């Protein structure tokens, strides 16, 4: 199949207008657009039969599809991509949306996680979609690590950072842990932790375990490995991926396949397996990126679209991302400036707070 640029060059002015009107109608209503509807709105007065011929040509090019329940057309994923790349008109950020986003950040509190939680809630409210906010890792050097047994199937890892920040994370320890193995695991980690961040520790810990395997009791070895998994995927209070507004995706009545798509999306969000990949989506450069359907490797099975933008710290290093996920018929022209502005404001807030 030819690429979008080549297809666009094959289209004359009439074809482009018909295509644009079909996509815009679909994004507005979620349903197929018929030739009779288009014949009343096109700038050029042409018959419905002529428009049907044009739509058939666009279907042949892979840009439109004809649902079996209607004579109208809807855009394909390829068609939506071409529309977003070449015909999308991005509007200015509406003052009301700006005020709602600004209100969440008008806070001198040092509780960054609280601010980001409010930002995520506001973003879902403004866009009527599900919002995703990937929070930055705490990258201060670690001063001390301790494991505390809470029950036979629950333990606590306490992380004390050099800047005074403390994180307590509950996890399920490997079977058979004893106070002795917990002390041994903590002693091993504290011997190598000095001056290292969590990211540093995650890269070095495997090498240290391999080099000093004889020194480490098996139970302590298992506990260290289990604790590492906890650090990479923290408990509820410290989740790096904040998800808000999932109920917005259920507000509109949909077909059975739409409900199943949303259920699959919810399952993906609950698992949160691909937090690192979520950030990788933004690493090709700053600014907003749009992923449609299967282009979105995180949620491809759900057939959803993701509008995402990274945010940066004062050193222009990407430390997190904000995004909105919803059906492929998102109002891209309105959501793009909202996501862009939110990402810029989050970066500024975090930079101001060091």
Automatic annotation (TrEMBL):
<dbReference type="InterPro" id="IPR021153">
    <property type="entry name" value="HrcA_C"/>
</dbReference>
<dbReference type="InterPro" id="IPR023120">
    <property type="entry name" value="WHTH_transcript_rep_HrcA_IDD"/>
</dbReference>
<keyword id="KW-0678">Repressor</keyword>
<dbReference type="InterPro" id="IPR036390">
    <property type="entry name" value="WH_DNA-bd_sf"/>
</dbReference>
<keyword id="KW-0805">Transcription regulation</keyword>
<dbReference type="InterPro" id="IPR029016">
    <property type="entry name" value="GAF-like_dom_sf"/>
</dbReference>
<dbReference type="GO" id="GO:0045892">
    <property type="term" value="P:negative regulation of DNA-templated transcription"/>
</dbReference>
<dbReference type="Pfam" id="PF01628">
    <property type="entry name" value="HrcA"/>
</dbReference>
<keyword id="KW-0804">Transcription</keyword>
<dbReference type="InterPro" id="IPR036388">
    <property type="entry name" value="WH-like_DNA-bd_sf"/>
</dbReference>
<keyword id="KW-0346">Stress response</keyword>
<feature type="domain" description="Heat-inducible transcription repressor HrcA C-terminal">
    <location>
        <begin position="115"/>
        <end position="336"/>
    </location>
</feature>
<dbReference type="InterPro" id="IPR002571">
    <property type="entry name" value="HrcA"/>
</dbReference>
<dbReference type="GO" id="GO:0003677">
    <property type="term" value="F:DNA binding"/>
</dbReference>
<comment type="function">
    <text>Negative regulator of class I heat shock genes (grpE-dnaK-dnaJ and groELS operons). Prevents heat-shock induction of these operons.</text>
</comment>
<comment type="similarity">
    <text>Belongs to the HrcA family.</text>
</comment>
<protein>
    <recommendedName>
        <fullName>Heat-inducible transcription repressor HrcA</fullName>
    </recommendedName>
</protein>
């Amino acid at each position: 199949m030819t690429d979008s640029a080549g297809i666009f060059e094959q289209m004359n002015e009439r074809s482009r207008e018909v295509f644009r009107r079909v996509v815009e109608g679909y994004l507005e209503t979620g349903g197929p657009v018929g030739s009779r509807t288009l014949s009343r709105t096109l700038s050029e007065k042409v018959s419905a039969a002529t428009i049907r011929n044009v739509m058939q040509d666009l279907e042949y090019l892979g840009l439109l599809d004809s649902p079996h329940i209607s004579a109208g057309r809807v855009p394909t994923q390829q068609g939506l991509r071409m529309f977003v790349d070449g015909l999308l008109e991005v509007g200015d950020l509406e003052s009301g949306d700006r005020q709602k986003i600004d209100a969440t950040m008008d806070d001198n509190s040092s509780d960054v996680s609280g601010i980001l939680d409010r930002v995520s809630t506001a973003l879902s409210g403004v866009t009527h979609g599900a919002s995703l906010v990937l929070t930055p890792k705490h990258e201060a050097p670690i001063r001390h690590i301790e494991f505390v047994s809470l029950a036979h199937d629950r333990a606590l890892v306490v992380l004390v950072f050099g800047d005074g920040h403390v994180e307590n994370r509950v996890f399920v320890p490997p079977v058979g842990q004893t106070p002795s193995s917990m002390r041994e695991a903590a002693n091993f980690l504290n011997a190598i932790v000095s001056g290292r961040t969590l990211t540093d520790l995650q890269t070095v810990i495997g090498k240290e375990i391999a080099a000093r395997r004889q020194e480490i009791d098996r139970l302590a070895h298992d506990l260290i490995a289990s604790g590492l998994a906890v650090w990479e995927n923290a408990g509820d209070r410290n989740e790096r991926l904040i998800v808000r507004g999932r109920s917005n995706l259920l507000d509109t009545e949909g077909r059975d396949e739409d409900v199943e798509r949303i259920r699959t999306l919810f399952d993906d969000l609950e698992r949160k397996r691909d937090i690192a990949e979520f950030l990788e989506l933004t690493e090709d450069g700053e600014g907003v990126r749009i992923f449609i359907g299967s282009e979105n490797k995180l949620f491809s099975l759900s057939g959803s679209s993701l509008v995402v933008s990274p945010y940066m710290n004062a050193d222009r290093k990407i430390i997190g991302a904000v995004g909105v996920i919803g059906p492929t018929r998102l109002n891209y022209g309105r959501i793009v400036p909202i996501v862009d502005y939110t990402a810029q404001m989050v970066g500024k807030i975090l930079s101001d707070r060091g």
